[in-house]
């Protein structure tokens, strides 16, 4: 299973804007898009996911669907990204095609350890930091990442999530992360995809290769 180092979590004030931003990300060289739609009906998500799949397929970009694993299977997305409170990845695995990947969000060492027991393909660990408006929300910071990754000693890719900027990449790589998932910093400037890729050295030959022991 190959997990790209740079993920774009789609954003937009409407489903149409999500699709427009996915198109921009694909034309700017993103290798993986995570459809970030929330709080709309499953039927609507399916329609948008079908359109997102058409866009990403054209650019040979991987597509991940948040939460809705049935939709991920129906549109033949490359996988699904689950929260720790969603359906257990072990059960989801039985519903998906063998080639589809499963990512799981985690906020602590304990949640990461649980994720590894579920044999997920990658872990989205965060938040690295939180916006100023959410200053009372706990976050990991660089020290948190370092401690968790040192304790885990896993080959499973750990993807950093949470208000990460281009200035953070080198420090996060030193902490041991495998890649990063970005929303704001890319949505505000799709040119940042090239910068992130250069910082991550995220050519196709440098992607994380992950096989279960």
Q: Could you write a compact summary of the structure shown?
A:
This protein is an alpha/beta fold and 213 residues long.
Alpha-beta classification = alpha/beta
CATH class: Alpha Beta
Per CATH, what is the topology? TIM Barrel
CATH H level, superfamily name: Aldolase class I
Overall tally of structural domains? 1
The helix content, as a percent range, equals 25-40%
Strands, count: 10
**What order do the helices and strands follow?**
EEHEHEHEHEHEHEHEHHE
pLDDT below 50 for ≥5 consecutive residues: which ranges? 203-213
Structure description:
The protein has about 210 residues and is an alpha/beta fold. Strand 5 (about 80), helix 4 and strand 6 (about 100-105) form a beta-alpha-beta unit. The chain is globular, with a radius of gyration of 16 Å. The strands form 2 sheets. An 8-stranded parallel β-barrel has the order 2-3-4-5-6-7-8-9, surrounded by 6 helices. It is built from 9 helices and 10 strands. Helix 1 packs parallel to helix 2 and helix 6 (about 140-150) packs parallel to helix 7. The chain has one domain: TIM Barrel (Alpha-Beta Barrel), CATH 3.20.20.
